[in-house]
# Entry
Amino acid sequence: MKLTPYLLTLFTVLFQLQISVAQYPPYPKSKVIRDVKFDWSSHIRLASGSDNWPITWADDGHQYTVWGDGGGFGGTNGIGRSSLGIARIEGSWHDFRATNVWGGHNTENEHKQIGKSYGIVCIDAVLYMWVGMFQTKEDQFDETRIAYSKDHGASWTFADWAFTRQQNIMMPTVCNYGKNYQGARDEYVYSYLIRFQSYQGPDDYPDKVDWLNVQKPGNIDLARVHKDSILFQNAYDFFSGMKDSQPVWTKDVAKRKPVFENADGVGWCINVSYNSGLKRYILTTEHTESHRGHIGIFDAPEPWGPWSTVHYEYGWGEGHFPLNTFYWNFSNKWLSEDGQTFSMIFTGRKENDSFNVIRGKFVVE
# Structure
């Protein structure tokens, strides 16, 4: 078929319209957090060669964080390399000491466990983390298990059940509150489950990992479990909608409904934490394309929403560090009492394949 100039113009307009619609933030602008500012001069980079770094504030006053594929603090991509590692962070955001607790270079405890985690929390002096039990493309996202530690990360026990890719579940994270889960909304623990769509994406950068892609369309599901029953699979409830302004829960994972949606997609790893000063849940994720610094920050009054947009950017950090970040999360220990001044921990590829911290401020007036 020969295209006429009219049809060519029409296709061009429709294509441009599709792009403009797809790149529009999925939720309205936040009425609580008006803007976010980053202090680029505060950037700290450590633990070169190790990425991920979700973090939680434990009962002993220290923070515990998880890395993948590296030697952790003091190590490199090769020296002390662990597939999965735990570190303890003591001190303030500008003066802290980091120690490898489980795996890594000069660690307190050796191990050979494989996997990746983007969700760790401390509840009643016990650390819990979601672990994606994969190492290669062949077993990617096959299953995610909950693990727990009663000795502040020195040893871990894994559940004998898992959420699976066959359920379209991948890489859960868990909502963090204050020290040792203080200030929690209720007696429940809230986990956010990325809806698996495909490991094949449009990303075309030369050194891409071809199975770590933004999931399109982007859907995030919500599960809750009583804090005393975290290790029991049949104790989990899944969000299945709203009725009379209240969430409805189901035991049937097939009947779950997303609490967050974005046609631009969501990342293959996400983070959610509760900002007690602002009384808002903060969700961070990628959009559009992975490993490009395409960041989305959203807020909500409840774990299930409704969500609004705090910040939606393409190429976050341009002019300050390479545009290859893919994961961002907030340290509640390093958060100001009013919730406005924060420390954001992030990671990425190449130079950003490391533990990175930057200070910033939520603008509320």
